[in-house]
Amino acid sequence: MEWLVSLAGAGLVMAALRDLFHTLWHPTRHGGLSRLVMTVLWRLARHLRVRGRVVGLVGPLAMVTVVGMWAVTIILGWAIIYWPHMPGAFTFTPGSKAAQQPALLDSVYLSLVTVATLGLGDVVPAEGWLRLVSPLEALIGFALLTATVSWVLEIYPALSRRRVLAIRLALLQRADPSAQQLDCTVGATLLESLATEVARVRIDFTQYAEAYYFHDGEDHSSLAATIGYAADLAHSGQTARRPDVRLTGDLLAGALEDLAAILDQRFLHTGGTPTEVFAAYAADHGRGLTPS
């Protein structure tokens, strides 16, 4: 029975590590529990129609919640591993009152101290197998800390790329280039660079799905509000007279179709056309598509 309890604890630890791996390091970055937490928080904020500033906290709050969920699951999992063997399989510092506490409390304490790599030494594994597996928890705790820092450092450059594209589209719309102005070498270069930026954002939504749950703020920096104008530019390029402009217009249109497919497949589930997907994206982020 003791080993069954320990195996249950090991199962909790493996579940947390699996979700962490699929969220941060798997090529598709599609963690189950983490995505569920983020989706629930996002839908709750949208359902309650909270103010823009509060909505802007959903992404960071979701990341903190997910990291906390991983940490609590790992700590409890290791505590359950220790619990059936506490206190007989452990050595306590002379004069320590730890052995007088409930076994579960001592197990949680030891797990928390170990995962935090504090190494206080007042409770030490005495059995051979525990002495081997206990340092693994410290390694997992160090990996969790490293993964959290890496996650933060990765997500914000992706958000910056998305906002730069949104601001660029807003500036282009303000300049309002005519079809004749786009039908030239400069127009072809412009459409090609926009297609490249859209492709980068599409990859960001694939590799950093949690970026979807970050609110972009004002309309001029919100891709949800300005992405419709990119479709207008692509259409203008496709109907131009110069073949190089038509080619880059097709490239931009294809990049937008790929972006719409990712948004619909992973977040929106409308099954509609790119125009309908972008409209749903704008509505989900509390924005209206920028009019043509």
Would you write up a description of this structure?
The chain has 292 residues and is an all-alpha fold. The chain folds into two domains: 146 residues, no CATH class; 130 residues. Helices cover 72% and strands 2% of the residues. It is built from eleven helices and two strands. A two-stranded antiparallel sheet has the order 1-2. Helix 1 crosses helix 2. The longest helix is centred in the middle third of the chain and has 48 residues. The radius of gyration is 26 Å and the shape is elongated. The model has no long low-confidence stretch (mean pLDDT 87).
Helix content: over 70%
The secondary-structure class comes to mainly alpha
Largest sheet: 2 strands, antiparallel
The total of beta strands comes to 2
Number of self-contained structural domains: 2
> For the largest beta sheet, what order do the strands appear in spatially?
1-2
Low-confidence stretches: none
Transmembrane segments: 57-83, 138-159
Organism: Streptomyces aurantiogriseus
Protein name: Potassium channel domain-containing protein
Keywords: Membrane, Transmembrane, Transmembrane helix
Features:
two-stranded antiparallel sheet; 292 residues; transmembrane; mainly alpha; Potassium channel domain-containing protein
Helix and strand topology:
Blueprint: H1 2-24, H2 32-48, H3 52-55, H4 58-82, E1 90-92, H5 103-115, E2 123-125, H6 128-175, H7 179-182, H8 185-207, H9 223-238, H10 243-268, H11 274-284
Antiparallel strand pairs: 1-2
Helix pairs in contact: 1-2, 1-4, 2-4, 4-5, 4-6, 6-8, 6-9, 8-9, 8-10, 9-10, 9-11, 10-11
